[in-house]
Amino acid sequence: MRCEAFFEVLKYLYFTRPYNTMKLGLFRIENLLSRMGNPHSGVKYFHVTGSNGKGSVTTFLEYLTYYHGHSVTGFYSPHLSTILERFHYNTRYISQDEFVEAALEVKKHAEEMDKLGEEFAPSFFEYMTAMYFYITKKSRAEYGSVEVGLGGRFDSTNVIIPEVSVICTVSLEHTNVLGNTVEQIAFEKAGIIKEQKPVVVGAMPDSALEVIKQVAREKNSMVYEYGKDFYVEPVQFSFNANVYNYYGSTTIKNIKVKLNGKHQLYNVGLALKTFELVEKIDEDGVKRAFEEAFIPGRFEMVNDIVLDGSHNPQAAEKFAENLDLYFPEKRKAAVFGIVDDKDKEGVLKVIGPKFDTLIITRPPSKRAEKVAETYEIAKKYCKNVLFERDYIKAVELLKTTEAEVKFVTGSFYLVGYVRDYLLNGKIGEELMIGGA
């Protein structure tokens, strides 16, 4: 049933606490949680950061916990099609009613803080974080699997004392906030390491790893490194049915993983090492968890169209790698749209030659007006480029092509809206409220 209160709360959040407005520091979230009775206390957490991979590792940990017989919440950002994707309980999204209840509880305390001035007014993400902790406490979950929003040290999730901290990767990202070198960014991410709590780290530059190790030494925290203390080997790459072997304190072979991409082997290893530091591994529980673990819009097929983001050159490289891995020698066509402040040339240079046909469109974002510019760049890298400004018409045009495999890629705005359209035959009211 349509929940009127849900849409009213969404309007309040999107317009009163603007999405994408960033506020660093922990004093607001600490104050807010204190007013709420510290709902984040008394729960065992996994805390996950990284330039790439943190969403997958957080997901894997949630599913591992659930399939080992524990109640667990998950906290994720950003969302793709519905804000409910940010809040999980036992691997399922919370309901609209549960969302409204949490939002209204936080609102009482947030608006008292608003009266103290702009500096004290909780941001959108701080509000989301407080809602997550309320949901976790209300559900009496034993565990929480928490993805960092940005960086680590000053992220609003960094109020927890986790059982294990995880740093997946370190690369240059958000340099205007986190620093201009991988060493500076590694220091910010290492901010989630807590006193005498272990940290699990993925493959990364040596200089970044050394920064993390130094922080861990200062915190008396054990470091477990991918490739040294544990590793994963691929057995088979097959779309939605990849198979890996894990070697850590335990050995588990022939783990089927639904999530696609070679990079997932690192994420599988990070999640399993993290989990086995806290719980006794059950092989059946592990295999069920990885077969079920799912993230929308990540090389996902919906109604015979594969959806994935290629919003920067790094993501484009992984996307192109997956095209060769899963669909070699197949005729391929894609709808592609990207916002104007991204590296269009860098992305299209990588993915353009992979397609027989590219249909250029406008993602549903105020940041995507220069679609003609995207079209001209695309023509340099793909032989057959079409233009359709309306993304719904572009998807319908894609369906008529003779390609054996069809894709929608580029901006996650585009992927999210198209996913909603493919599943429901229209764009839902929620996306219309928060969208372009």
UniProtKB/TrEMBL annotation:
GO terms for molecular function: ATP binding; dihydrofolate synthase activity; metal ion binding; tetrahydrofolylpolyglutamate synthase activity. It catalyses: (6S)-5,6,7,8-tetrahydrofolyl-(gamma-L-Glu)(n) + L-glutamate + ATP = (6S)-5,6,7,8-tetrahydrofolyl-(gamma-L-Glu)(n+1) + ADP + phosphate + H(+). Keywords: ATP-binding, Ligase, Magnesium, Metal-binding, Nucleotide-binding. Belongs to the folylpolyglutamate synthase family. Residues 48-272 form the Mur ligase central domain. Residues 297-408 form the Mur ligase C-terminal domain. InterPro entries: Folylpolyglutamate_synth, Mur-like_cat_sf, Mur_ligase_C, Mur_ligase_C_dom_sf, Mur_ligase_cen. It holds the Pfam family Mur_ligase_C. This is tetrahydrofolate synthase. It comes from the Bacteria. Gene3D superfamilies: Mur ligase, C-terminal domain, Mur-like, catalytic domain. Its EC number is 6.3.2.17. GO terms for cellular component: cytoplasm.
